Amino acid sequence: RMNRLMLERLKLELDNKKLLMNIAETERHKANKDADKRLRYLLDQLGSGVLMVDDKFNHIFWNKTYEEIFNFPAGFLKTGLGLEKALRWYYEDAGYCDEDVERITGSFFTDLSKESPNGKIIQKIDLADGRIIEISAELGTDRIILFNFVDVTKREKTNAEALFHMGQRDSLTGLPNRFLLKSHLKKILGKSKVEG
After folding, report:
1. Which residues contact 105 (CB under 8 A, 6 or more apart)?
2. What's the pLDDT score for residue 1?
3. What backbone torsions phi and psi does residue 135 show, to the nearest 5 degrees?
4. What backbone phi and psi angles, to 5 degrees, belong to 76?
5. Scanning 3, 63, 91, 162, which has the fewest C-beta atoms within 10 Å of its C-beta?
6. How many Å from the N-terminal Cα to the C-terminal Cα in the chain?
């Protein structure tokens, strides 16, 4: 009888241990889910798109800004979706012909395959709506690649305007140069010819 009671007690202790381990595992799982939610929330607040892919360029993780940059439909992005397939969808949806889609995606992946001395690759792509997106890619741990997508349209436009302005002004004095003078003279002469 004593042995039987001891066996039942041991069995009860083992069951309690299993139960406690299950509870602990459930709590760890909940904590990980909460941490994932907090991380996703923080990444969604960034002004740039974030994408994590595996070594085969399959989606692992992304934020809402990434989805918004490329106007992906709800539910289109899934873990395991190939980055090439996602880019092809974007350019095809924007009305690009098959040859252009092939050229754009091909050059994107060719540029990514080039070795970089610091392990970081930066390139720019022109989107169908005229935006310019700067993409930086960095190889992380376990052959995971991290992408950051930043809309640099305003910056590029400002740079182009500054270059145009510098091309028409003397760098030392800021006064109009010969190019600007010729341009104004042509306008004035053209007006005088039209007006007679």
Report:
1. 84, 87, 88, 91
2. 63
3. -115, 125
4. -70, -45
5. 3
6. 126
Residue by residue, what is the 3-state secondary structure of the chain? Answer: CHHHHHHHHHHHHHHHHHHHHHHHHHHHHHHHHHHHHHHHHHHHHCCCEEEEECCCCEEEEECHHHHHHHCCCCCCCCCCCEHHHHHHHHHHHCCCCHHHHHHHHHHHHHHHHCCCCCCEEEEEEECCCCCEEEEEEEECHHHCEEEEEEECHHHHHHHHHHHHHHHHECCCCCCECHHHHHHHHHHHHHHHHHHC
pLDDT, tens digit, for every residue of 79-125? 999 999 999 999 898 888 999 989 888 888 887 766 665 667 788 88
Instruction: Find the length of the chain.
Output: 196
Give the integer Cα–Cα distance in Å for 8 and 17. 14
Q: How many whole angstroms separate alpha carbon 167 and alpha carbon 76?
A: 46
Per-residue CA distances from 98 to 81, 102, 107, 110 (Å)? 20, 6, 14, 18
pTM over 0.90: no
* Residue 37 CB burial class (10 angstroms; 0-12, 13-18, ≥19): exposed
Dihedral sign from CA coordinates of 90, 94, 98, 103? negative
pLDDT in tens, 170-182: 778 878 888 777 8
